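Subject line: Sequence and fold of a protein, written as structure tokens
Body of memo: The sequence and its backbone structure tokens, given next.
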Amino acid sequence: MRNRAEIRARRAEGEPIKAIARRIGASRNTVRRALAPGARDHYHRSSATEDAEEAVRDVLADWPHMAVVDIGALIDWRLSRRTLSNLVAALRPEYAERTDTRARPISTIRAGRIAARALTVGTVVLQ
């Protein structure tokens, strides 16, 4: 997010809101929100990937080569496949080279904070 302390300092020097917005590349309403009484000095909104990272790491720790689609099903990912794919691509190298992995039962994987429902896993019967 924008540097709110800088916005306040520029406004205290008498710079107009429109000029501050132009200088920092933000909208005038963003500048107004930063100047509002009681506005926090720092603003951060976590992304979906930050919320899902722990669950993805949990899956990759046991199954480092699992397909992104399957990881998405395990953690109940309901957003863009591309976003999940980028996250998995960034994390997979940490796990792909490990040779000491022993897979845990799939039922032990936690769904993570992003899941809207409890994680359920069925059984596969091979004939």
